[in-house]
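so my prof wants the structure for this chain in the C-alpha cells format not the other one, which i didnt know existed until like an hour ago. anyway here's the sequence
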Amino acid sequence: MRVKHTAITLALITTLSACGGSGSDDTSTETPVVPTTGFSFVATEMIINLTDDVIVAGYADLAAQGDTLLLATQALLSASTTQADLVAAQNAWKSAREPWEQGESHIFGPVDSLSIDPHLDSWPLNTTDLQTQLDSNSGFDAETIKAWNDDVQGFHTMEYLLFGDGVNSNTKLIADLSTKEREYLIALAEVFRDYTAQLDDAWQVSHNPQDTNAKPYAELLKTPGDATNTIYSSQLAVIEELINGMIGIVDEVGNGKIADPFGESLTTADTSKVESQYSWNSLTDFSNNIIGVRNVYQGEFTGGADKQGLIDFVTAADTTLATRVASEIDDAILKIQAISGSTSMPFRQAILDDDGRARTQVAVDALTKLQATLQSDVLPLLSDWNS
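here's what i got, hopefully its the right format
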C-alpha cells in the first residue's frame, strides 16, 4: 500500500510598508520600503531535467529490462536448459528490480492511475493461490493471467518461482523448476513486459491509453499552468509532488518495509512480512529506494552528468540545509547496506539476530532523521519560494 500525502496549504503573504509624514503641514513623501522575503529560483530547467533524465529515463530502462527478463525466462523451456540459464533469469529479475525500486521515489502519475504498481509489485505473495493456479492450469497465457488477482502475478510470483522459498537459501536448482513453473514464469514475464511498456508509453506517448490524443505524462509535468494541463496548475505543484514522493518512500522504507517485519522485539519479528525475501534481495531493494530519492535530489543517476535537481532548489533557499539533506540521504543508504554486517546477512536473518537488529535500528533512525528533515525543513520552503 502506498501512503498518500496531502498537499500543504500555501499562504501568499504580502508585506506592505506604510509611509507617514511628521507635522500637519509636511506634504513630503518617502519611497515605500518593501522588505525582501523568501527566495528566488527559476525551476524550469530542473523540472525538465528531472522529468526526462530521471523519471522517463528510469521507466525506459524498466521497459528494456522487461524485454530482457522475458527472453531470459523463455530460455528456460529449451531442451538444453542448464543451471546457468536459471541464474541468467534470476539476474534478469534482479536487474529489473533496480529501476523499479529506484522509481518508487516518484510513484505518482500513470504508475498509480493505471494501477501498474499493484500489478507489478503486490506483496505479500499468496503462495496458496499460486499453488492452486499451478495445480489447476496449464498452457499459461499472459491475457488470462492479467485477469487474475495481483498477488499471483508480478515481481514476487516470479521471484518465488525463480529462487525458491528463501528460508535457508536463495539458490534454486534447475532440476527443481517444473515444466509448469517454467510455463507460468514465461507468461508472467510477458505480463510484466506488457505493463512496463504501458508505463513507459504513458510517460512518453499518451498518459491515457483510452485517449490517443492525451498528452504524455512527461509533458504535463514539464508544462504546469498550461491551459490544457488539468493536473499541475503551477511549477510549485510539480515541486511539491516531487518532494512528497521522496517523503513517501523514505516513510515506507523506514516505517513499513523495515519496521513491519522488524517488530518491537526479537520475539515479535516476523520474516513473513519481509519483501523480496525469496531472493534475499531485500536490502538491495531498500537501498535502491533511497538511491531513487538521491536521484531526484541530485538530478541524475549515480555517476551521471551533473544536472539540476531538487538540491538546486534547496540551495537557493539555504545552502547549509541543501548540504545536510544530501548527507542524510547518503547516510541512510549506507546504514541500510550495513544491516548485512560482515557476513552479508540477508535482512530476513538480520532481524532474528541481536547484532543484526542493532544495525537495523541504526538504519531506521537514519531514515527517521531524513524523513523529518524533508517534512519539516524542505517541504516548507515551498511557502517561501517567490515562484
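also thought this was worth mentioning. Confidence is low (pLDDT under 50) at residues 1-29.
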